Amino acid sequence: MARETDHLFKSIFFFAVVPVFVIIEGLLLFSILRHRHRAGRTDPAESDSPTKLRWVVIPAIVMMFVDLLPFGEEARTTFALAREPKGDVLAVDVYGHMWWWEFIYPDFRVPKAPASYRIGTANELHIPTGRPVRLTLRSIEPGLRSLQGFRSQSDTDLPTGVIHSFWVPKLGGKQDVVPGRENKVTLEADKPGTYFGQCAEFCNLSHANMRLRVIAQTPEDFDAWVAAQKRSVTPPADGLAAEGFQLFTGKGGCLACHTALGAEGNSFARVGPNLTHLKSRGMFAGAIFENTADNLKRWVKDPPAMKPMRPEQGTGMPNRGLSQEEVEKIVAFLETLR
Ligand code: CUA
After folding, report:
1. For the chain, which has fewer Cβ within 10 Å, the N-terminal or C-terminal residue?
2. Judging by DSSP bridges, how do beta strands 193-198 and 211-217 pair with one another?
3. What b-and-e string marks burial along 241-277, b requiring 16 or more CB atoms within 10 Å of the CB?
4. What's the rounded Cα separation, in Å, for the pair 192 and 133?
5. How many angstroms separate the CA atoms of 173 and 201, rounded?
């Protein structure tokens, strides 16, 4: 997809530079210099002859032919990009939340988990190299219904959510993520590496904090990652982490919005990211903070202080009013989620 788009850009650029810019601008410059005003020359007479029209019609016809090639190229690329990839394709469901990315892998079930569970991650999309990855993109935001100012009073039947845009420049993928629609885009990485991305459609308060990473791995490394993502949480036996586990599943109320496979409750809430393998990610909160214990502590203590959010309107994590001691315990548990 990136190559098709790049090829289209280069061919149109070529036609824009050579015939349009060099030849036409060249003739224009030549004419300006050649017929410029000099001492002794009289001003040219104004003409209203109908034959003047030919100097509009002839260039228009010439330009039509010049445009045919890039236009054909554009039509071809449009159809090529719309085609479903063939062969061994990996499917990933992408959900644009306010303001983070959720990635769910519909092909990867977890044997002992409830049937609806699939492995899923946040903000860091893992893909294998050399294999087309077909993304299905949807916008999701249940909390938005209460957000005033986005809709008129009578528009209660409009789908909730805002438009995001999934964009990973180096992999060429850019596709709008529109409420009530399923959009598709294909990514394929030739080389392993980390490819940076960013929401490219203004989506309110923390649009700028809605980044993402695509982590392309060799097929072997990717399989190892998938296998690790299928593990469930092991409740810590003792210490601070065990106390944190109690808070996490109990008084902290974390499972009301988050999933942690194997933790008590198994509610599979998807308001916030799946935390089962939180520490397998390098970044969190829309890929804007490094996933360190210190950052997690600051985050759990007061999320809206770190990233602009409106939890009272269902967009973003609220300040749970935890004491510093409780924060230390919860993060000690979070640190075990590998
Ligand atoms: Cu999501 Cu901008």
Report:
1. C
2. antiparallel
3. bebbbbbbbeebebbebbbbbebeeeebebbbbbbbb
4. 14
5. 14
Task: Per residue of the chain (338 residues), give pLDDT as tens.
Answer: 888 888 888 888 887 888 778 988 999 999 999 988 888 888 877 777 777 788 889 888 887 877 787 778 888 888 888 889 989 999 999 999 989 999 999 999 998 888 888 999 999 999 999 999 999 999 876 544 433 333 333 444 444 678 999 999 999 878 999 988 899 999 999 999 999 999 999 998 999 999 999 999 999 999 999 999 999 999 999 999 999 999 999 998 898 888 899 886 556 788 889 999 999 999 999 999 999 999 999 999 999 999 999 888 778 899 999 999 999 999 999 999 99
Give the C-alpha separation, 298 to 93, whole Å. Answer: 30
Nearest-CA residue for atom 1 of ligand 1: 164
**Alpha-carbon torsion angle 178, 179, 180, 185, nearest 10:** 30
Q: Which of 283, 99, 306, 307 is nearest to 202 (CA)?
A: 99
Tokens for 257?
């919005």
pTM for the structure as a whole: 0.83
Could you give the CA distance from residue 40 to residue 262 in angstroms, rounded to a whole number?
A: 94
Strand partners, 118: 109
Alpha-carbon distances of 89 from 11, 131, 264, rounded to whole Å: 29, 6, 35
Taking CA atoms, 167 is separated from 26, 94, 125, 233, 283, in Å, by 38, 12, 12, 32, 18
- Ligand 1: centre distance to CA 136 (Å): 17
> What lines the ligand 1 site, CB under 6 Å?
96, 99, 164, 199, 201-203, 207, 210
| Residue 204 CA, ligand 1 centroid: distance in Å | 7
3-state secondary structure of 310: strand
Point out the ligand 1 atom lying closest to the alpha carbon of residue 199.
2
Which of 204, 183, 226 lies closest to 97 in space, CA to CA? 204
Q: How many CB atoms lie within 10 A of CB 200?
A: 18
